[in-house]
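Dear support,

I submitted the protein below through the web form. The confirmation email said the job was done, but the results page showed an empty box. After a refresh the structure appeared. I'm attaching both so you can tell me whether what I see now is the final result or a partial one.
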Amino acid sequence: METKHTKITIGGLSGTGKGTVAKMLAEKLGFQYMSVGNFVREIIKEKGIDILQYNTEKNKDPEVAEKILDNRTKDFGLKNDSFVFEGHIAAFFIPDAFKILLTCDDEVRINRIVERQNMSYEESKYETLEREKMQIENYKKVYNIEDHVNPSHYDLVIDTTSVLPEEIVEKIINKLR
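What the results page shows now:
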């Protein structure tokens, strides 16, 4: 499929379907899939540490950790083409991308996280909302980003609450045409 957009970012809160949709879209377009999670795994490998050690380091200095990840995102966006990049605030670091925001009802997204991580609903809700609160504080402190899920920052917004990933990918492809 031909598209004028060769750089695509997909953002949204946890459980909105970012990873699933990004992977499916990249495959359908024949584009590379990339995510901030890939960079976290690279950093862990480079430092020779595990995820728990990484999170401990990140919590000690979240500003440095955020900037390392976001600088890698920025560099990736500058040096590459024909990709779908998934990340909470990737749209802010790849400004020439077509920016997609996925939204979803909180109860539905928490239930998705419960299924994915095999946790109780209450535990998942607490952890997710606390993590998001910390992320929002970090984004504001580090980058002065007030509301990273404000639709005005994006070219396309899709509510994934009651839509299958395949339908979301089709909506995106139709918009890209």
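Response: this is the final, complete result; the empty box was a page-load delay. The longest helix spans residues 121-143.
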